[in-house]
Design brief:
By secondary structure, the chain is of the alpha/beta class. The protein is 42% helix and 29% strand. It contains four helices and eight strands. The protein has helices at residues 36-49, 68-84, 98-111, 124-135; strands at 2-8, 12-17, 22-27, 29-31, 54-58, 63-64, 89-93, 117-121. The strands form two sheets. A six-stranded mixed β-sheet has the order 1-2-3-5-7-8, sandwiched between helices. A two-stranded parallel ribbon has the order 4-6. α1 runs parallel beside α2 and α2 packs across α3. It is globular. The protein starts with a strand and ends with a helix.
Length: 136
């Protein structure tokens, strides 16, 4: 059963799957916009409230980039909180957009210093397969 963590039509959908302890966030628009930080805060709250082991960030069809301020906030607040909660892995499903891909590469580089694994996948199905293999 999936729990809605944070969703805004046309921007982002974030669901938590208790059976796999995985949060999947599907971004259609990375930014800048008013929903990025509230969505990430909801994700942090989910990681704290549940024993979240993996986060899949599906940016396949996303457009836009994160601001430098948002990138810094992620590195100063989001990733340290994930680290403190013993998150195991963040898997990024790479975007089709070259510009969005740059944003994904930046948060992966920043996040890789926090002790949890960062992986890439070519599709959501591949990302879910990685989660299943890590849980086995």
């Amino acid at each position: 059963m999936n729990t809605d963590v944070y969703s805004v039509e046309g921007v982002v959908e974030t669901l938590y799957d208790a059976a796999t302890k995985t949060m999947t966030c599907t971004w259609l628009h990375l930014g800048p916009h008013a929903h990025l930080r509230p969505c990430l805060q909801a994700q942090v709250d989910c990681v704290i409230a549940y024993d979240t082991q993996a986060i899949i960030v599906d940016t396949t069809d996303s457009k836009g980039v994160l601001t430098q301020e948002d990138q810094a906030w992620i590195g100063e607040y989001v990733f340290p909180t994930y680290q403190a909660q013993d998150l195991k892995v963040v898997i990024t499903v790479l975007p089709k957009s070259a510009l969005a891909s740059l944003a994904a590469k930046h948060w992966q580089k920043t996040g890789s210093t926090f002790g949890f694994d960062f992986m890439e996948a070519d599709s959501l199905a591949t990302a879910k397969q990685i989660v299943a293999e890590l849980a086995a």
